[in-house]
């Protein structure tokens, strides 16, 4: 049984939330709190699987509350509900939450969101996946530089110069950011040598995604495998992230959702790097098996490891407390039908981008899934979009 805490200062809504899961008392134990202070008192006594909070409350706001929840119980799923329509404020809330649900919302939306989180949680707790994670030489630690950047962004005195100064603390990440800023994909006419200019050109989502991905890369020793190239993987991740975000924008998704798709695209294959680094011999066997039997790599990984690179990366990012939409897109980018969310999302964009970004054939697309969510008719346009981006990147 999972424990869920609803925090809402509106008495009517709080009562409604209390009745929301009455029919699922065998799965959910519901607790209610009228404000942030009362919620914190409960959280100091014990952890909850999910905390759902209103954003605007007297005393302690929802963002302040969920920031404290993140520190106290980092594995707790954090959902914020609000009538706020400003995209910037909604995006800011994602620094401390996993999901943002705007008011007014359909009760079915909240229930499906809880089902989605529950399904992802069950996937990440699969014994074979956890067993594979336990075989890793070491799991990459959460990048402290990322937290420093988030704090700088949230600071009233936040500046590009301040963020660039934080980035400059790590020469490896600085080099990677300058490399990306100077890549053909960015389309700059002059070479960038200044971290401040690079941060300004790339934007904060790209910088944060690079910090996250560079943390995994920092543990990898290149040249260990004949049939695996970290540089080729990096190029694929950049293409996938860029295409996933572009597809979201073409489908008029919210800003925060588009940025989640970019981050997920940048991170979706990091499990390959982890396997190549910690279990090189076994990963080489999986690569060879996939080539000899002409089967998808995930199928070969299941045979060798009992789990896939997608699951392994999602497991890591779940531990890091990244937003559920990003973890889900990473976990299911080969198998989107496993998601409880049956509509176009960051997962859809990453699944399509992964198939169209050269490394994977278009045949790896799950057309049944695209038909099921009513979006298959957009495939021709997406293929044209991928071709356009490819042309721009190498013009």
What would you say this structure looks like, in words?
The structure is a single chain. This protein is of the alpha/beta class and about 400 residues long. It has 21 helices and five strands. The chain has a five-stranded parallel sheet, with helices on both faces. The mean pLDDT is about 85.
What's the gist of this structure?
This protein is an alpha/beta fold.
Features:
single chain; 395 residues; alpha/beta; 5-stranded parallel beta sheet; 59% helix
Mean of the pLDDT scores?
A: 84
Total of helices: 21
Distance between the termini: 55 Å
Strand content range:
5-15%
Structural class, from helix and strand content?
alpha/beta
Task: Name the poorly predicted regions.
Answer: none
Shape descriptor reads: globular
Strand line-up across the major sheet: 2-1-3-4-5
Largest sheet: 5 strands, parallel
Helix content class? 55-70%
Question: Gyration radius, to the nearest Å?
Answer: 21 Å
Could you give the count of β-strands? 5
How do the helices and strands line up, and which of them pair or pack?
Elements: E1 2-7, H1 11-20, E2 28-33, H2 36-45, E3 50-54, H3 62-72, E4 77-82, H4 87-93, E5 99-102, H5 107-124, H6 127-135, H7 144-154, H8 160-167, H9 171-181, H10 195-202, H11 204-217, H12 230-250, H13 255-267, H14 270-278, H15 280-293, H16 297-305, H17 309-320, H18 324-331, H19 346-356, H20 367-372, H21 379-393
Parallel strand pairs: 1-2, 1-3, 3-4, 4-5
Helix pairs in contact: 2-3, 6-17, 7-8, 8-10, 9-10, 9-11, 11-13, 12-13, 12-19, 12-21, 13-18, 13-19, 14-15, 14-17, 15-16, 17-18, 18-19
